[in-house]
Amino acid sequence: MAKTLEKQAVLLLIVQALYGVGHALSGLFVPVYLWKSSQSYMIIGWFTFAQYALGGITFWLAGKWVKEHNKMNSLRLGIALSGLFYCAVLLLGDRAISWSLPLGMLNGIAMGFFWIAFNVVYFEVTDPDNRDRYNGWAGLLGAAAGMVAPWISGILITSMQGESGYRLIFTISLVIFSVCVVLSFWLKKRHGEGKYDWMHGIHQLLQKGNPWRRMFPAIVAQGVREGVFMFLVGLTVYTATKDESKLGNFSLITSLVALISFWIAGKWLKKDYRKWSMLIGVIMIAVVILPLFWKVSYFTLLLLGIGTSLFIPLYNIPMTSRVFDLIGQSQQSAREREEFIVLREAGLSIGRLIGTAAYLILLPRNDSPLAITWLLFAVGIVPIAGWWFMKPFLSGEVEGKKESAN
Known about the structure:
Elements: H1 7-26, H2 30-38, H3 41-68, H4 71-92, H5 100-125, H6 131-159, H7 164-184, H8 200-206, H9 212-241, H10 244-268, H11 274-287, H12 291-294, H13 298-327, H14 331-335, H15 337-362, H16 369-380, H17 382-394
Helix pairs in contact: 1-5, 1-6, 1-7, 3-4, 3-5, 3-15, 4-5, 4-7, 5-15, 6-7, 6-10, 6-13, 9-10, 9-13, 9-15, 9-16, 9-17, 10-13, 11-13, 11-17
């Protein structure tokens, strides 16, 4: 039976949830805000590309700080910079479009500082016996944030005149990030130990028989899908409806489904079921894209959103848990957790950049609904390849190779 979560894990969940609320209130609408000002898919693409690129670079650079010094300061800096990002968008107003690239870079840097520290602390406050439970709760709270926050934002933006609604939600996000920083001081100080190995990830991938040579491409496959779906689905809902409140309703409905499915998956998904549950998940999150080939409308996009929310826990929970189980499989790898977490993020960043590059190549040339659908489908089936790479980890085939990575 899964162990209950310790107090520090619960507090980390609260910080993560508040951070998610701050981004959920405004993050879904930032691409819409930029698109309304520019009507340009290229600008949205480069904003997103800059965000992913700088996020990955910051992750690698901040790894040294997190490894050798107080990692909580990195987490707080990430939250503070996220607040600064929304403050900058707020102050720039309709001039934000001219600063889309620097804004994307700032948001990426903020996320890099936050997530490198968060993932290390997450590893330290969980273990293989309660990691699925933590991920289930994280998905549950994330779905709750994604359900309520964008719905409120959509109503506010639609009901208020001009830019007032956007200014209000960006201000609320700024306040939430401030609260999040204060709460983080109740998390224990976690000073680093050891020396940071800048080339650790390269060494792992070059070592014959190292399990990360299979894990890494699986993570890249996850990132390819994420890189496009995290912004294009919401943007497509808006361009199909021209109504922020409908985008908020879309998030409300799909997040409600995700909330229930993450709760069920977190409660009942056991280690023995990971292999086949993940296969079902990766197939179904691709199948639910097919209605868009019939017609790109609010209804078919809603089918996509509901289907994705229903099946994504079967993919995300085993994927995340198994990666961190691999990091903690021996004392040596646990001591190198910062470097392994950086390696994981490098895979996600490479995948996200590949997905966004496909977007930048296709949509500025052809932004028809059919082109958008083909792009979503192309990146949406990539996790199936990720499942194939993950199979040995899901069936326990690599358990006997625990020391081979060290």
